[in-house]
């Protein structure tokens, strides 16, 4: 279940910036709305994209090219655009948030790639830089929790030592903005409590985890939140409620981010529904 939780936490931040200096709240909201006017991402065989000489334009391109459903070459081009933006004096906080998001999505979408570990390490470094730059904003803390969870999964030693760091980052993200990214901070915190070993070994607490997942479902109707709660309920033998949640998920039209993310998650929902319908099998 931990791997699915981290997958859910990889959805995009709604973030942006002014051209230089500290990002104002209004400017941070504006960038992604403006990104709809960006040119389409380059094809994987089209070669390196031509980049503008304006840092904000480069950030818009990076945001668009790293969107949900974009290809590996497009996300790699997004990293090039971020480097270009940084060289032109882009807002450092937004640059690091977009870099963390892009690298995390690369790792999520290419789980067998030999570069996956490097992408996760670079994503974590970018997220931590974002926290240093703007500790009062949710995005950096959110990606620290999400990326560090993935790093802990592949760690051969020291994974338990990372759990307090993940917990602190997730709790801070919930405190700052629990609604961010389809209520992703609540989802991340709930899945951490479910996946971690129980006391006294660690902080694991299935009951507390399910309560946070219920809050995530109440906070946002994004289908992945329902899938995570349903899986947790199945593990506790709550088959009827799990079935209701999963049938709702499978009835959702393929719209927005779910139109892309659903290609991965609908088969998981069907698998879980089969488990709920056949508990003794």
Describe the structure.
The chain has 281 residues and is mainly alpha-helical. It folds into 2 domains: 2-178; 221-281, no CATH class. The protein is 69% helix and 0% strand. Helix 5 (92-109) runs parallel beside helix 7 and helix 7 runs antiparallel to helix 8 (159-177). The longest helix is centred in the C-terminal third of the chain and has 22 residues, at 256-277. The protein is globular. It starts with a helix and ends with a helix. The relative contact order is 0.11.
Short description:
This protein is mainly α and 281 residues long. 69% of the residues lie in helices and 0% in strands.
Summarize the helix and strand pattern as letters.
Answer: HHHHHHHHHHHHH
Characterize the biggest β-sheet: none
Q: Which parts are unreliable, with pLDDT below 50 for 5 consecutive residues or more?
A: 5-41
The tally of structural domains comes to 2
Gap from first CA to last CA: 19 Å
Strand content: under 5%
Beta-strand segment tally: 0
Number of helical runs? Answer: 13
Give the averaged pLDDT, no decimals: 85
Structural class: mainly alpha
Radius of gyration equals 19 Å
- What best-fitting shape do the alpha-carbon axes yield? globular
Helix content: 55-70%
